[in-house]
Specification:
Length: 630
C-alpha cells in the first residue's frame, strides 16, 4: 500500500473491486488520477494528509466504472443535442407526444430527428408510428425517424428538404418506397445496405462548432449519469478523420473529457480502403494521445466488401468474391505496422472467410501481440471461436439482439436464437470477450440494458431469447463491462478494477446491482460517477460533490433541454412517467389515466409478460393497442 499523501479518499463504502485477491473493501485513496490504496477505512484513512479531501460514501455500493467496448460517441456527440431520443420510452403514445412538442419549438430549416436507440417492440403498442400520424403532427417541419438500421420514415417536409422525387433513384441495396404514381411515400428501406439511411440523414443541417462542443459535453454527461466512464469509439459512416474528431480533441485539450475515449479509424472510401490505411499508418501513431483521448487502431470497417449488415428483417447478405483480396491488402498493412483492428461481422459465414485471410497473413507476419478482434458475432460457430482463440484474437459483443431479437426469431426460429451470440461458449473456450452497446443508432447507449440482457436473456420488448444455460451471472456480466474491456483497448492491468495502480474510475449505482430484482437491472443509473478521482456526476445525496457543471444545451430548442436523455428522465412526471420504473411497478396501480380501448385496465399485466410480438394470438395481437395513452 502506498504511503503517499492522497489527493482524495472515499470511505464508508461497500466496494466490489473485481480484484480476485481483494474482492471487497470499504475505502480507496486516489492520487494523480489513480488508486494508490484500496482497503478498509482504518488503513486507508490513515494515509490522509492536511491536503487530502475525504468523502463519506454513506455505506453505498461501489463498482468499477463501466467501459463500453463499441459505441459511436464521436458521431453521437456531434448530433446529440439535435436528436429526440426515444431510447427507453415504453409507450408510442408518449413518444409521439414528445415528437409533437419538439415539432412545436423547432425552427425552420431545422429537422426533428429521432435517430435510433429504440425498437418498436419496447412500446406497449408494439408498432412504429405511421407516416400519416407523423405528417399530421408535422405538416411543415422535416421529421426524420431512423428505426435501427432497417428503415427510416420521412414526413412530406423531410422529403422536400432532401429533394427526393419520382425521379430519385435508390442506391444498390436500398429502396425508396413509392405510391401508385411513383412518388416517394417517405419510407426508406435498407435491403440490407443501410447506406441510403446514412446518406439521407447526412443531408440535414449540422450544428456549428461551438454547439457541437456543447452537444458532446451533454452526451458525455448523460453517459456519466448512467455510470459510463470509458468507451471505445468504433468510427462510423460519414465520420471523417481528422475533421470530425476536432471537437473531442478540443475537449481533451481543455481538460473537459468526462468519458475516456479510445478511437478506431473507419475507412470512408469504397475501393480506396488500402490507401486510407496507408495514409493513416504513415500519419497516426498507434496509441497516440493520453488516457482520455487515444488512438486504438483500425475498424470497425476495414473494407466495404466485408460489411454484412445486421438487418434481420432481410436475408443474410452474401459477401462478394473480392472480399478476401481486398481485406488481405488492408490487414497486411495493419499487421506490418502492428496496428490492432476490429472487424464488424454479424454472421459466421463472414467471420469464417475473414479468418481465412487472418490465418494467411499470420503465416507471413505473426499476429501474436496484436489485440485484433471481431465485433458482434451473433451467429458465430464453435469452430470459428476456436480459430479466433488459436490466433490470439478477441470478440466484442453488443446487445443488438435486445433490440432485434424478435426479428431474428421471426426469420430463423427460437432455437437458432438461443445463443446469439454464444457468449458463454466464448468465455468457456478462453477467448477474450467483452461487452458494449453499438450505440447510438442500432441500440441504446444505456449500459444497464446490456447488463440486463446478459443476465436475463430478454429483449427490451420482453421476449426471452436464451435458456438459463446461456445466461451470465451478475459478476461475470459486470466483468464483461469492466476489466474484460481493457484488453480491447490494450490497457490490461491499467483499468477495469478497483485496485492500487489502476485508473481511479468508479460509480455508485442508484440501487445495489447484486441484489435488485432482475427486472430492475435495466433501470439502474449512477448516483455518483468518478473518473480519474474527479466527481463528474453526482445526484441525490452526492449532488453537492458534482464537479462538472454544464451550460444549458445548445441550441435553445434542443430536445436535450426538455427531455434530457434515456427514457425522457428530464420529465419524470411528464414524458418519462411510464418509462422510469420497471413494468411490475405499474401492475399494482395502473398508472393509466383511462382504460385502453382494446384491453381495459388489464394491459399492465400483459406489458410485463414475455409474449412474443410476432405471436398474433398473443395479448397484443396484430391490432396493437392504445395502452398508456394518458
Amino acid at each position: 500500500m502506498s504511503h503517499s499523501q492522497p489527493d482524495i479518499i472515499f470511505h464508508n463504502a461497500r466496494i466490489t473491486t473485481l480484484n480476485r485477491s481483494q474482492p471487497v473493501a470499504t475505502a480507496m485513496a486516489v492520487q494523480d488520477g489513480r488508486f494508490v490504496a484500496v482497503g478498509d477505512d482504518k488503513e486507508v484513512l490513515a494515509l490522509a494528509g492536511a491536503g487530502t479531501r475525504v468523502v463519506d460514501l454513506k455505506r453505498r455500493e461501489v463498482l468499477p466504472g463501466l467501459f463500453d467496448n463499441h459505441t459511436h460517441v464521436v458521431r453521437g456527440g456531434l448530433n446529440y443535442n439535435m436528436e429526440l431520443r426515444w431510447d427507453g420510452v415504453r409507450s408510442l403514445a408518449d413518444a409521439m407526444e414528445m415528437l409533437r412538442r419538439q415539432v412545436a419549438v423547432t425552427p425552420a430549416p431545422q429537422w426533428v430527428r429521432v435517430v435510433g436507440g429504440f425498437t418498436e417492440h419496447q412500446f406497449a403498442e408494439k408498432r412504429l408510428p405511421t407516416l400519416e400520424e407523423i405528417n399530421a403532427i408535422a405538416p411543415d417541419t422535416p421529421v426524420f425517424l431512423l428505426h435501427l438500421y432497417d428503415r427510416a420514415l420521412l414526413n412530406g417536409a423531410a422529403l422536400r428538404a432532401v429533394g427526393y422525387t419520382k425521379d430519385t433513384q435508390a442506391p444498390p441495396g436500398g429502396e425508396i418506397m413509392r405510391d401508385a404514381s411513383g412518388n416517394p411515400t417517405g419510407l426508406l428501406l435498407a435491403k440490407p445496405n443501410a447506406s441510403i439511411l446514412y446518406a439521407t440523414l447526412a443531408k440535414g443541417p449540422k450544428l456549428p462548432l461551438e454547439y457541437q462542443v456543447n452537444s458532446t459535453r451533454h452526451f458525455m454527461r448523460e453517459l456519466n449519469r448512467l455510470g459510463v466512464t470509458g468507451v471505445i469509439d468504433a468510427g462510423g459512416g460519414f465520420q471523417n478523420y481528422p475533421q470530425d474528431y476536432q471537437v473531442i480533441q478540443q475537449l481533451a485539450d481543455a481538460g473537459q473529457m468526462t468519458v475516456r475515449l479510445a478511437y478506431n479509424l473507419f475507412t470512408q472510401k469504397p475501393k480506396e480502403e488500402k490507401q486510407d490505411f496507408l495514409n493513416w499508418t504513415a500519419s497516426v501513431k498507434y496509441k497516440q494521445g493520453n488516457d482520455y483521448f487515444r488512438h486504438n487502431g483500425a475498424g470497425e470497417m476495414l473494407v466495404f466488401s466485408a460489411a454484412d449488415f445486421e438487418d434481420f428483417r432481410q436475408p443474410r447478405p452474401e459477401m462478394p468474391p473480392e472480399m478476401e483480396g481486398e481485406l488481405e491488402e488492408v490487414v497486411r498493412i495493419l499487421a506490418q505496422n502492428r496496428w490492432p483492428w476490429r472487424l464488424h461481422a454479424t454472421y459466421d459465414e463472414t467471420i469464417s472467410r475473414a479468418l481465412d485471410v487472418f490465418e494467411k497473413v499470420n503465416r507471413d507476419t505473426p499476429l501474436a501481440g496484436i489485440n485484433w478482434f471481431f465485433d458482434h458475432a451473433e451467429t458465430i460457430s464453435d469452430q470459428s471461436i476456436d480459430r479466433i482463440a488459436a490466433l490470439g484474437g478477441g470478440i466484442a459483443v453488443q446487445h443488438r439482439m435486445a433490440y432485434q431479437g424478435e426479428y431474428f426469431v421471426e426469420r430463423y426460429g427460437a432455437r437458432a436464437a438461443e445463443a446469439t451470440p454464444p457468449v458463454k461458449r466464448m468465455l468457456e473456450r478462453g477467448v477474450k470477450v467483452s461487452a458494449g452497446t453499438d450505440a447510438t443508432r442500432v441500440a441504446s447507449y444505456n449500459p444497464w440494458v446490456s447488463l440486463s440482457w446478459m443476465v436475463t436473456g430478454k429483449t427490451v420488448g420482453g421476449m426471452s431469447l436464451y435458456p438459463q444455460r446461456n445466461l451470465l451471472d451478475r459478476e461475470t456480466a459486470l466483468r464483461m463491462w469492466t476489466e474484460n474491456v481493457a484488453w480491447f483497448s490494450n490497457e490490461e492491468g491499467r483499468r477495469g478494477r478497483i485496485e492500487a495502480g489502476q485508473l481511479a474510475d468508479f460509480i455508485v449505482p442508484s440501487k445495489d446491482y447484486f441484489s435488485v430484482p432482475e427486472d430492475e437491472i435495466a433501470f439502474l443509473t449512477s448516483d455518483l460517477t468518478v473518473v480519474g478521482g474527479r466527481v463528474v456526476y453526482g445526484a441525490g445525496p452526492f449532488a453537492p460533490l458534482d464537479d462538472n457543471p454544464l451550460p444549458p444545451a445548445m441550441p435553445d430548442w434542443s430536445p436535450t433541454r426538455t427531455f434530457k436523455g434515456y427514457a425522457a428522465w428530464g420529465e419524470p412526471e411528464g414524458a418519462g412517467r411510464n418509462s422510469l420504473q420497471p413494468a411490475h411497478r405499474h401492475m399494482a396501480t395502473c398508472g393509466c389515466g383511462s382504460s385502453c380501448g382494446l384491453h381495459g385496465h388489464s394491459h399492465a399485466k400483459a406489458w410485463a409478460s414475455s409474449v412474443p410480438a410476432s405471436d398474433l394470438q398473443g395479448f397484443f395481437g396484430a391490432l396493437g393497442c392504445s395502452c398508456w395513452m394518458a
